[in-house]
Each structure stands twice: as C-alpha cells, then as structure tokens.
Specification:
It is a single chain. By secondary structure, the chain is an alpha+beta fold. It has 2 domains: 69 residues, Arc Repressor Mutant, subunit A (Orthogonal Bundle), CATH 1.10.10.10; 144 residues, no CATH class. Helices cover 46% and strands 16% of the residues. It contains 10 helices and 11 strands. The strands form 5 sheets. A 3-stranded antiparallel β-sheet has the order 1-3-2. Strands 4-5 form a two-stranded antiparallel sheet. A two-stranded antiparallel sheet has the order 6-7. Strand 10 and strand 11 form a beta hairpin. Helix 2 packs across helix 3 and helix 3 crosses helix 4. The longest helix has 16 residues. The radius of gyration is 18 Å and the shape is globular. The chain starts with 6 loop residues before the first helix and ends in an 11-residue tail after the last helix.
Amino acid sequence: MRDGPDIARVAALIGDPARANMLSALMSGKALTATELAQEAGVQAQTASSHLSRLVEGGLVAPRKSGRHKYFSLAGEEVAEVLEALMGLAAGKGHLRTRTGPKDQAMRQARVCYNHLAGEMGVQMFRSLQAQGVLVGPDLQVSPRGRQFLKALGLDLASLPKSRAPMCKECLDWSARQSHLAGRLGRALLSHFIEEGWARRQADSRVVQFTPQGLHLFEKHFGKAVRPQEDFA
C-alpha cells in the first residue's frame, strides 16, 4: 500500500458524470433535495439516492433534515475549493461542455462560489482589496486601514459569526483562472452586497446580478467592473 491520502477514492467520487453534476449544482451554496439533484444529474430518483449515499459516505456531501424533508449540501468550503479548481483545470485543458447557454457570460462575470463572490467581479474585488492595502501579506491579514475601509463599507469584522474558517483565503477562479476571495470575509462581502440591495441571486442559477446602483457602488469601492451585465429586471 502506498503512503499518503487516497486521492483515487475522492477522484472516483467526483469523476462520475451524474455525481459531478450534483456537486456542481451544490456549488450554488443552496441545500437541495434528492429529487432536485436527480433532475440536475439527469437520473432516476433511486439512482440519485445511490449516488448521494456514496457522496455522503465519502465526506463530500452532508445531509440534513428539515421537518419531513431531507436536504443535501457540500460538506464544507474546502470541497467547493477543490471543485472550483477542477473546473479551472478542465476549462484550461479544453474540456468544456458541448453546449453553452445564455447565462455563460453572466456566470463568468459574477457568480456564487459556494458562499462567496466569484467570476471577473470577484477577481477584481480581490485585486482591489490587495492594491488598497486592505489585505496584506501572504496570509491575507486585514490591516488596520482595511478594518476602517470595511467599516465604512458597513462591515464590522468583530460582528462576524464565529467560525473555524479563516478570515481570508484565496480561491482559484475557474473562469478567470486567477484568485478571488473566500473565507469569512469573502462570505460576509457577498452577503452584504445582497442584503444592501447591490445585487441579487438569479433563481435556479449561480449567477449574481448587480443593479445599476450596485454596480456603481462596487466600482466606487473596488474599481471598474467588467461590463455590461444583463439588464436587472
């Protein structure tokens, strides 16, 4: 037996097309039912249950009950980061889906990566936070200046929910192939944008769509974003 972690087992779990589609659907950060995941995977309910059992056993997906219903979500942010990196590797090697849809450009511009902002706007925000000295050092510490910047934006780091997750962490963006911001701060910023009405999640999609005013405020704080987005309806 070889030493070290068994990456073959994890790779086999992700490598099945139906399971890969389920995991991709859960990258939205939303908990989904087995029925919803069966639709995403294009398989029958019984087959979906078998796939989900394997994903739960393998530690990639976590189940939870709410009343009479059972939901599934990714087991943690580290799973999302692995999936995002694999998407980037697949895109870089030309392994793209044969059919593209109308939301592809919007997905590349701004989308949810589990619980934080990804896409070109996510990369732009991360670059800006570093350029402005909000995030400093290789370990991405929030500087005193950064705390003031975030406070002016409406975020108080001391009020963020306690968690074992790091405050700031790089996540490799699959479409831009550069880093965007994950961690507690990345999650808090996306939540702030949505709560303040800068942006909203598109239904049944990972797309994040900014309002004209929200886009203006984003550019005021983080620099010019890639344009245009689809009209905000």
